[in-house]
Design goal:
The protein contains eight helices and no strands. The protein is mainly alpha-helical.
Length: 199
């Protein structure tokens, strides 16, 4: 891989990497590749566990925490339940490889995060349904008026699509989602920080 002139200049300022730093960098890059395969479901949690067990047996236990931190960094509010389950299973699988395991505390913390994500999704859906309900009456009335004006020409209106688009563009939804996102993002950030401390 060719480094840019700026990257070479920064490396020159930092100084030459020690042999240990070069080895860590090499295996960190390998870990990134392994996790990429894990995130795209080319590797199962068992495959990830096996790969990291091999790394640990070869004296690279530092990769265990690094792998967990990368899995934690991938957790967000809006990801799918399946993605979260993969992150969770990966974090817990790696924890079983540690000499001093904090498995139960990690599991409880991940349960709390899962509950927070679920609450975020449920509240978003409930509020969106309420806003759509209010808007739907207006859109149906407008569609009826338009159909009456069009008469025999037969104007066709996608009421559901119009309701969905109008609800998403409404100031009420934008205001709600902005506050909701901000509040839950902070809660998630705090929980992830606590989780990082545990690994």
């Amino acid at each position: 891989m060719e480094l840019s002139p700026l990257a070479r200049e920064k490396l020159a300022q930092i100084g030459e990497l020690t042999q240990e730093e070069k080895v860590r960098l090499k295996y960190s890059q390998h870990l990134a590749s392994v996790l990429s395969d894990y995130f795209t479901a080319k590797l199962s949690p068992e495959d990830l566990w096996q790969e990291l067990r091999t790394q640990k047996e070869e004296g690279r236990e530092f990769l265990l925490r690094e792998a967990q931190l990368k899995l934690i960094d991938a957790i967000n509010l809006s990801g799918s339940e399946r993605d979260f389950d993969r992150q969770r299973r990966g974090i817990l699988a790696v924890e079983t490889l540690k000499s001093e395991s904090n498995y139960t505390a990690l599991e409880q913390s991940l349960d709390s995060i899962q509950n927070l994500r679920r609450q975020y999704g449920e509240e978003s859906e409930k509020t969106f349904r309420e806003i759509k309900g209010k808007i739907e009456k207006q859109v149906r009335l407008a569609a009826q008026q338009l159909a009456a004006q069009a008469g025999a020409r037969g104007a066709s209106i996608d009421v559901q699509g119009s309701v969905e688009a109008t609800a998403k563009a409404s100031p009420e939804w934008k205001n709600f989602i902005s506050k909701h996102e901000s509040s839950f993002s902070q809660k998630l950030k705090d929980q992830l920080a606590a989780l990082r401390e545990m690994v």
